[in-house]
Amino acid sequence: MKQFYTRGTDNAGIGSQLMAGCTTGAMAVAFAQPTDMVKVQFRAQVRGAERVKRCSGTMDAYRTIGRTEGIRGLWKGCGPNITRNAIVNCSELVTYNIMTAFSAGFISTIVVFPVDVVKTWFMNCSAGKYNSTINCAVTMMRNEGPKAFYKGFMPSFLRLGSWNIVMFVTYEQIKMPVMRSQQSWESLI
């Protein structure tokens, strides 16, 4: 589907990804709707006030629905189910993109923050307080413990996490036309 919406290129923008997600979700629902209908029927007979057992098993449920509502009855509620699945797929895709960028920001902050804190302390110290950045780091550890290396972590992470979301989403959107123009340029050579 992605290739259908991107016209065969490997780079899909968020719009193409959302459309591909909606289409594949719709196809999956259309295929699996009879099974969902049977599941709903079983839930209804368990939760119903009358608690009347309408079906004795899965195959009996398919037969009962087919007999009482016709073969089309197995696809009853397919439209709302497609809508539901499209919303699920889109929200998962958007969440995946945002969480990926946010996670990248979190991990980068964890990894780089101690170096950043030592750099800041060393740059802000009075002349002669530390004879090197290593001396600064060792003194911080000795005097304040490992927590000293993560002072101010949360504001820094929130800044970098939100910046990463904007940066990675923008990067993906800019990358596509650049790749297309590069491919066009290379085809001329």
From TrEMBL:
Membrane-spanning ranges: 93-113
Compartments, as annotated in UniProt: Membrane
Solcar repeat segments: 12-89, 92-177
Keywords: Membrane, Repeat, Transmembrane, Transmembrane helix, Transport
Gene Ontology cellular component annotations, sorted alphabetically: membrane
Stored InterPro entries: MCP_dom_sf, MCP_transmembrane, Mito_Metabolite_Transporter
Pfam families: Mito_carr
Membrane topology: Multi-pass membrane protein
Family: Belongs to the mitochondrial carrier (TC 2.A.29) family.
Protein name per Swiss-Prot or TrEMBL: Solute carrier family 25 member 7
Lineage: Eukaryota, Metazoa, Chordata, Craniata, Vertebrata
